[in-house]
Amino acid sequence: MDVVSNLLYLLVLLLAGIGGRRLGLLTESRADVLTRFAFYLALPALVFTSTSTQSLGDVLEPRLIAGFWLVLLVVGAFGWVVHRRTSSPATRSVAVVQSYHCNFGFLGLPITAAAFGGVATAKASVILGVGGLTQIPATVAVLALVNEAEADLTEELREFLANPVIGALVLGFLCSALNVSVPGVVSNGLGALSQLALPAALLAVGASLSLDTGAVDLPTVGSVVALKMLLMPATALLAFSVLSADLSTTRAGVLMLAMPTAISTFIYATELGGDADLASANVFATTVASVGTIFVVLQFVG
């Protein structure tokens, strides 16, 4: 599909998820089934098929990791500066973490696969792994420190490492490193399963979005959207250009970093004393805004 078709496909699925929830078709239990299917089956299949068929030398590009960390640091610092004067710790902490915490798994990886496929998807899988190891500790630390809440970082990291997507990433790299060929029947089955990652994830995300504008600070939501959806992809494009990254690295890095705020930040905010209403509104606003900003990003890197 071309750029316009990809974005229309994304928008239709996202709206179908939102509409399905409002019409009562995607109930909480059905949305949960979709989420589990994407998390435990479709996304791991996508990660494995994208990494096991690629050369490790092509995928493990130092500029990819360097650029990712640079962008995360810069945008995180901007978020802290912009929101440092916010009086409420609960609001300030959520605004800061949602300015940089990306939805790599449910949106970033499937969208990268649909847009570019091949080695770019494998590199996006690397960002998914490194991103989780970076974003989760940073987000938990900010929320816990600002809100003076107790957090078990070890438990959070243990849960992340037990993530089936991370297991699929490690297994894919092992198959690539050892030059292990996957039987055709298994490969075809995993390939078919991986094709369902994007529709399942988008429907689940759409069904989970909710917005209550009466309970949130709209200027703060606007600043989070500006930082996450405008500053972050622009910084990513600049960073990978300065690092002279190749095309697949730039595509994977910029597109993954252009993703909206992860839904998991709402869960972290709820558990660690953050403003849950603001967290929900930011997830909704950045996800809706991403339809337009991803279109612009694809014009630059596509």
Automatic annotation (TrEMBL):
Positions in coiled-coil regions: none
Transmembrane segments: 6-25, 37-57, 63-82, 102-120, 126-148, 160-180, 192-211, 223-243, 249-269, 281-301
Range of residues in the leader sequence: none
UniProtKB keywords: Cell membrane, Membrane, Transmembrane, Transmembrane helix, Transport
GO cellular component term, pick one: plasma membrane
Membrane topology, as annotated: Multi-pass membrane protein
Record InterPro entries: Mem_transp_PIN-like, Na+/solute_symporter_sf
GO BP terms in the entry: transmembrane transport
Superkingdom of origin: Archaea
Compartments it resides in: Cell membrane
Name of one Pfam family that matches: Mem_trans
Similarity annotation: Belongs to the auxin efflux carrier (TC 2.A.69) family.
UniProt-recorded name of the protein: Malonate transporter
Lineage of the species this protein comes from: Archaea, Methanobacteriati, Methanobacteriota, Stenosarchaea group, Halobacteria
